[in-house]
Amino acid sequence: xxxxxxxxxxxxxxxxxxxxxxxxxxxxxxxxxxxxxxxxxxxxxxxxxxxxxxxxxxxxxxxxxxxxxxxxxxxxxxxxxxxxxxxxxxxxxxxxxxxxxxxxxxxxxxxxxxxxxxxxxxxxxxxxxxxxxxxxxxxxxxxxxxxxxxxxxxxxxxxxxxxxxxxxxxxxxxxxxxxxxxxxxxxxxxxxxxxxxxxxxxxxxxxxxxxxxxxxxxxxxxxxxxxxxxxxxxxxxxxxxxxxxxxxxxxxxxxxxxxxxxxxxxxxxxxxxxxxxxxxxxxxxxxxxxxxxxxxxxxxxxxxxxxxxxxxxxxxxxxxxxxxxxxxxxxxxx
Length: 334
Known about the structure:
With about 325 residues, the protein is of the alpha+beta class. About 30% of the residues lie in helices and about 15% in strands. The protein is globular and about 60 Å long. The model is unreliable at about 1-40 (pLDDT under 50).
C-alpha cells in the first residue's frame, strides 16, 4: 500500500550546496510513491524487463539527467557483492595515501587463516592479486554462493597471480587488510570518506555489518543501500572519482579498477580491481558493473554518460547479470 506521509527532506544537503542536478533529484525521487512501482513517463526501460525482473528500484541517469526511476529508490536493500566495489573505493584512497601497498604480500602483512592454514606459497599473494581475484588461495570463505563452493579449485592448484577465480576469500581478506593497515572500521570509513562527501542521503554506519564464519578468520562485510545512494556512488565513479569539485576517489585508481586485468568465463565480462568490466567493443572504455547476487547492480558507461542502478528484494526470479547487461546494451543503442 502506498504511504500517504509527506516526503522527508531533512536528510538532504543544504540548498546552497546543491547543483541543478541535485535539485532535480531532490524534487523527483522522494516524491515517488512508497510501496509501488512508479514508472517515469517516457522511460527507456522496456516494460518486458520490468515485468520479468520486478526490481525494487531501477534508476537511469544519462548525461546528468534522470531519465527513468521505477519502484522505491529510497528503500534500503542488502546489495550483496556490490560491497566489493564499495570497498574498492576505500582502497583507492588508502593506496593513494600510502597506507596500503599493492605489492605487499600476505606474509609481510601477517595474514593467515584457520586450519588448514595458508601455505608459504599462498602467502606470496599480494594485495593486488586479491583485488584482481587472482590470489590462488582456495581456502573456505564466508558468505560464499553455492556456485563458488562448487567451482572452487583445489588448494595449491594455481600459484598466486596466475589464475582468475571469483573468490570470496580474496574479497573478505581485503577487508581484514584494510582494517589492519588503516586502523579504521570499514563502514565508518565509507560514511566519512565517501558517503558523506558525495551527499548520500540514506546510508548510515548501521547499514553495514559483518557476517562471520567459523571456518575462516575473515568475515564478510555487508552493505544495505538505497538505489538513490547507489546512483550517487555511480555518478562519482562516472566523474572519475570527483564530486562537485572535490576528488573523493583517485581518478587513476578508478581507471585501473575499470580496466580488465582478467578475462572471465562469464560472457564478455572482464575483471578489474573489484569491478566487472564491460566489453569495450560494445560499451566503450571504462565501462563496468558493481554486481551483487539476485540483481543488485551499479553500472557506469562513460562513453554514454550513463549510470544505471538496480535493486531487487524478491530474488526468487533470479534476476541475472546477463539480463541486466542486455538492458544496458539496449540503453546504449537507443
